[in-house]
């Protein structure tokens, strides 16, 4: 059996001659090339096989290697070779041969070692290098390597590491900021696509369309990530949006970027991302010359305010104060960058022109001048129309807030009305003044309620919920500013009595002088009241940050120094009553506030010297009765009949030398009769 198997494997019959094979006896030995060596091979094959024991090291199948030092080392086997036990059939000479497919699979598994896993730090370093290479390639040749933008998007979508995702977002923002052109790209029409163009034009079109497509995908990604407030990628996405709005506001998909900013402002949590979005919008309003982008952003903000029922942070409404509403652009060139007039060419250097060329040159100059003028007119008209629509939307929002009396937005609304008062149409004056008067009446009712409420904590809660006294001062400033700014344009329509606002200002002077927070604002550092269970809370605001003494001085300024002519002349009794009560209030004020109020009294004495002269000179007093310091109507206090400003005699002995000096100036201005 073994001989048959051996002869079947080696096929020695092909080496034997047919004649010798036929004549040779059966027991004769076969020969190959005349040598009898066939039996030797048979004997070797019949020897027993040596099996591998458990303690034996596996024989290495790898070739030796040569080290850099020149030594030759044998490489040991890393894994023991798997040997299956021989079956009884092998002893009998029968071998089960494996199929070639199974053998090749086993060889491939043995040939391919397991790849070591990379650490996260190494992956981040490699990602930085890859992103830097892609960014450099795109910046160098954007029209050739614009296809790499899609590779960045795929990298962001397939990557699981947060750091690499952040780097990808920032890299894309930087690339778009650098390669975006200075014009908007419109989509091509069917006719333009079918038209045959030069290779350069086709190349530019492909780049532009691919750029717009990649930019749109990137903005969609930023929008999705920015809505996930708890995600680590959200601040990075907001930062990228702010960068694009600051650098490329003229490019496509500006509305999508502004929408992302406005959506972030609708969140009540004021964090770093919120502040960044707000500052970006304010800077965008200040830099927008055409007014188109400002109109889009204002409409989005108003729509968001309505959806949130005006329950947003006050600083969102304060962004309207950065708008360039109907203001002429008084931009003057500096001495370094101004266009210097060109020097005239000398006669000898001029080229001779024929009559026909001279005529064509003159006609071209006229056409160029007309085209430049036409472009300027169109730009001015477009800006005027956009800013008019923006102003209309802003004032409608202000009126709605005044009507609904939203407590968190009243300060910002009154600030806006005071700033844009010169732009309001006279037809709205009656409605605005009625709303302002209601606010002042609410402040008066709140003051009466504080006197009646015995519980101090309840009174403090009323004051913290809504600072009505401050709102009332803003109402006074807004009301007088409305008429003062429109007095020159509409003299017959501003004869409106504003004595109600003046009377309230007179009544609140003593309360303001006793206020412990008269010099404190949202940016002031101050300690809490030790006698109070809760700290004194001053609402933080970027615009509504003036102190109470500043608001008082602004109110006095608009009442006595900037009052419109149509409101009539201020009576002597009113001026004298204010002078007396301001002198009383100056005794209670801190040093800085006292100096500021005495300066206002000095200016009042200079302007109305004849009306206040009887208060400083007793010989000029005419009338009977006594002065009533507690009545809140200035005309009924009888200040001219039985009072004198003896407070300045006390201020002359004040510990502060500046107050003593300022008080002497007040006495000098009051005693000088003009």
TrEMBL record:
Main location: nucleus
One GO term describing the cellular component: Noc2p-Noc3p complex
Biased composition (Basic and acidic residues): 112-123
Record-annotated CCAAT-binding factor domain positions: 472-661
Biased composition (Acidic residues): 98-110
One BP term from GO: pre-replicative complex assembly involved in nuclear cell cycle DNA replication
Residue span(s) of domain Nucleolar complex-associated protein 3 N-terminal: 126-218
Annotated stretches, region: Disordered: 1-123
Pfam family of the protein (one): CBF
Classification via InterPro entries: CCAAT-binding_factor (IPR005612), Noc3_N (IPR011501), Nucleolar_cplx-assoc_3 (IPR016903)
Alphabetically ordered keywords of this record: Coiled coil, Nucleus, Ribosome biogenesis
GO MF, one annotated term: chromatin binding
Protein family (similarity comment): Belongs to the CBF/MAK21 family.
Task performed by this protein: Required for synthesis of 60S ribosomal subunits and the transport of pre-ribosomes from the nucleoplasm to the cytoplasm.
Protein name per UniProt: Nucleolar complex-associated protein 3
